[in-house]
C-alpha cells in the first residue's frame, strides 16, 4: 500500500518552531518531488512549499519565505518542513503530497491533479 504519513504537528506559541515529517511507505520518494500544503478552517487548501527530486529546487509560498525550510532525506524516505517564527495565521492542517514527477509543477501552479499521493494531515495550532 502506498502511503504518506505526516507527524510533528501540535500546539506552539507565536514565535515558536515545529518540524513536520512526511514519511513514505510502499514506494520510494527519491524520484518524486514532494510538496507541503495547508488548509486553515474555512479556507481552501494552499501550497506552502515543495522540494524537487535531484536537482533540489525548493519552492516557498511568499507567506512562509524566510521562516520555513523544506528538506529531504531520501535514505529515510522522508521529507521535512522546519517551521520557525510561527504566527497565528500559520494555524492549519498540514498535508504532504507526492508529485507525479521530479518537479514541483503541481505545488507551484496549484494543479492538484498532478499530486498523486496525499497524507492524512497533521494539525498545527499557533496560539498563546
Short summary:
This protein is mainly β and 128 residues long. The chain is built from one helix and eleven strands; from the N terminus they run E-E-E-E-E-E-E-E-E-H-E-E.
Give an overview of the whole structure.
- By secondary structure, this protein is mainly beta.
- Helix content is 4%, strand content 47%.
- The protein contains one helix and eleven strands, in the order E-E-E-E-E-E-E-E-E-H-E-E.
- It has one helix at residues 105-109, and strands at 3-7, 10-12, 18-25, 34-39, 46-51, 58-60, 68-73, 78-83, 92-99, 115-118, 122-126.
- The strands form two sheets. Strands 2, 4, 5, 6, 9, 10 and 11 form a seven-stranded mixed sheet that branches. It has a four-stranded antiparallel sheet with strand order 1-3-8-7, with no helix packed on it.
Features:
single chain; 128 residues; mainly beta; 7-stranded mixed beta sheet; 4-stranded antiparallel beta sheet; 1 helix; 11 strands; 47% strand; globular
